[in-house]
UniProtKB/TrEMBL annotation:
The keyword Heme applies. GO terms for biological process: hydrogen peroxide catabolic process; response to oxidative stress. Ca(2+) 1 binds at residues 69, 72, 74, 76, 78, 90. It comes from Rhamnella rubrinervis. It is found in: Secreted. This is Peroxidase. It catalyses: 2 a phenolic donor + H2O2 = 2 a phenolic radical donor + 2 H2O. Binds 1 heme b (iron(II)-protoporphyrin IX) group per subunit. It comes from the Eukaryota. Substrate binds at residue 165. Keywords: Calcium, Disulfide bond, Glycoprotein, Heme, Hydrogen peroxide, Iron, Metal-binding, Oxidoreductase, Peroxidase, Secreted, Signal. Its EC number is 1.11.1.7. Its cofactor is heme b; Ca(2+).
């Protein structure tokens, strides 16, 4: 008993973190469903393709779902749970409310998978695969997805409010948010490149275009406001209205997954405060060096992106006998 306790303590130390679990399950594996559900990856890809043809923004939305899943208790599909019984949905938390999209697409994928191979493919793996496919479909890199995640039996509303980074965070806070997840500065810069597609609400970038902290960025060399800022101000008035009017995160190529995000932020055209501070608050020059490297070499960005996504997809996963495979991604099995 004492030895077991000691072991647990050591494990707890090794995996020290705010909401980490003790990792005693087997590691994730490539082609995990090869025997049990050989068409799993194909089924996910087909659905993502159809969803993105119907609604191009869905690629971005699916990518973001995986991110918001992984940063709260790990990549365990906790984000997909609706409020029911004891569960308070993460969907209601500030960073997610009126913002996350793609749940119906995940439902459809799950439905098809349940027809083909019941209780076999986890909702957490669906999110990881859909994110990969979404990026690839919009012209980004493709990577092999490690699989075998299990789904959580709980959600964390408070965790969603606490661990998801905010668009008005300082660089220091963003670095800390990522560090808490075992992701480093390079991962932060690389994964911020996800903002090469998709949209944000006026609510998320109002501070960025009116707050004095960001003003300098928006002057041209003649001290005139840039066109960029004028456009954003017309989309998003300073008064509290129009919270939900949208602007593209990447103004130059809004629907493509490419390296233009990095050129944008170098030019002061990052949409969110969190994009802007990567440049304005980088006192060591380490980030700017990376941003230049990505802006001038898309292949370098793509390779780093793939490896940071694999790393993100590994955050606190449940495997083996941990967790469950949900029948319906919105509810735990009864
Ligand atoms: C660095 C910290 C980050 C912050 C502060 C942040 C914040 C945000 C915010 C505020 C939005 C707009 C939401 C809205 O207004 O409805 C957004 C959109 C988005 N984020 Fe991030 N994000 C971060 C990192 C990431 C990462 C790591 C990923 C993916 C791995 C990601 C993927 C996306 C995508 C794809 C969208 C567009 C979603 C859509 O159009 O539906 N973000 N993000
Ligand atoms: C960021 O925005 C939130 C919500 O609007 C606000 O409560 C918070 O004080 C802001 N934080 C900073 C650092 O400006
Ligand atoms: C927009 O968001 C702000 C900040 O949360 C809020 O005070 C305001 O009431 C919202 N406006 C509308 C029209 O919903």
């Amino acid at each position: 008993m004492r030895i077991l306790l000691l072991k647990l303590m050591v494990l707890a130390l090794i995996f020290h973190g705010t909401e980490t679990r003790i990792q005693d399950g087997p590691p994730l594996a490539f082609h995990y469903y090869k025997q049990t559900c050989p068409l799993a990856e194909e089924i996910v890809r087909r659905h993502v393709e159809i969803a993105v043809v119907r609604d191009p923004r869905m690629a971005a939305s699916l990518l973001r779902l995986h991110f918001h899943d992984c940063f709260v208790m790990g990549c365990d599909a906790s984000i997909l749970l609706d409020s029911y019984g004891d569960i308070v949905s993460e969907k209601q938390a500030g960073p997610n409310l009126d913002s996350l999209r793609g749940f119906e697409v995940v439902d459809k994928i799950k439905h098809t998978l349940e027809d083909s191979c019941p209780l076999t493919v986890s909702c957490a793996d669906i999110l990881a695969l859909a994110a990969r496919d979404a990026v690839a479909l919009r012209g980004g890199p493709r990577w092999n997805v490690l699989l075998g995640r299990k789904d959580s039996l709980e959600a964390s509303f408070n965790g969603a409010n606490q661990y998801l980074p905010a668009p008005n965070s300082s660089l220091e806070t963003l670095i800390e948010n990522f560090r808490e997840q075992g992701l480093d500065l390079a991962d932060l810069v690389t994964l911020s490149g996800s903002h090469t597609m998709g949209k944000a609400r006026c609510f998320s970038f109002r501070e960025r275009i009116y707050d004095a902290r960001f003003k300098e960025q928006d002057y041209d060399k003649y001290k005139r406001y840039t066109t960029f800022r004028r456009i954003l101000r017309s989309i998003c008035p300073e008064s509290a209205g129009k919270n939900s009017s949208l602007a593209p995160l990447d103004f130059t190529t809004p629907a493509r997954f490419d390296n233009n995000y990095f050129l944008n932020i170098l030019q002061g055209k990052g949409l969110l405060g969190s994009d802007t501070v990567l440049i304005t608050q980088d006192h060591t020059g380490e980030i700017i060096k990376k941003v230049w490297a990505y802006a001038s070499d898309e292949n370098l960005f793509f390779a780093s992106y793939a490896s940071s996504m694999v790393k993100m997809g590994n955050i606190n996963v449940l495997t083996g006998s941990q967790g469950d495979i949900r029948k319906n991604c919105r509810f735990i099995n009864n």
